[in-house]
Amino acid sequence: MTAYEPTGAQDAAAAGHDLAYDAVVLAGGVARRLGGVDKPGVRVGGRPLLDRVLAACADARSTVVVAEPRPTARAVTWAREDPPGGGPLAALGAGLRHTTAEQVVVLSADLPFLDERTVRRLLAALGTSGADGALLTDADGRDQPLVAAYRAPVLRRELAALTRENDGLTGLPLRRLTGALGLTRVPDPVASFDCDTWDDIATARARIREHGHVLDEWISAVKDELGLDLDVDTKLLLDLARDAAHGVARPAAPLTTFLVGYAAAQARGGQGGPEAVAEASRKAAALALRWAEEAAQADAAPDATPDTSPDAG
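^ Molybdopterin-guanine dinucleotide biosynthesis protein, sequence as received from the core. Prediction below:
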């Protein structure tokens, strides 16, 4: 897979979009090509696929998951199409009933590489294009309508029309909806990668263990597992661990970073955040450097032990 890197202008637009949006995640499919396994619960990088997608839309005003309820890393609203298994349009209609924002992000639950930045880019593209929706395209240029941001009133209007024309939405393909919309497209072969087969799952699991991804993946997994909503300067902590290991002793690295985390948690009456982590890290790093300087001075100094032999003097 080749990563798609947005331009600076796209990043700037994504950073400035209106974050007032709702999210609808479709997680109730049968997953026949996976042998009927509960695909949203399959773990990639130690986290269920569904939780990975929920993390990508964590700043949504509300998030609706269309599926049978299950434990998730963050609280969501559960919905179900009637009858269950009625297809993506029926599921989308069921989820949309629980949303109120003017913009809605619609996602499938099998996107291992989706992240918050991609969601923001979709919303930015929707806001600047004037289109009815903004969707990702995959490595082959194919539309991915379940990795998209839409104008909610337009979706409701078109779904209502399809319901009248077909006496419901059950069994209707997504193209019956998207074919009536004006869409803008955002190429992203990585974030659009979905897991339909066990080979896809294996590919995703291998990719996140590549050198350039594994640390970020591990930090994200640990934060989810511990229920932490905290962004920290990873480089700062790594620099601290290096200084402690080199300036004091190798075991000092994990112990020092643990103590920094504990101190940050105790800061400001238990309300410490990224700033508290950075402050504690700077203090500990300065101490480690002082230890290293003293050790270097001691190694360079001549033997200062007094000579008490009988011949002295």
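Residues 8-207 form a domain with the Spore Coat Polysaccharide Biosynthesis Protein SpsA; Chain A fold (CATH 3.90.550.10).
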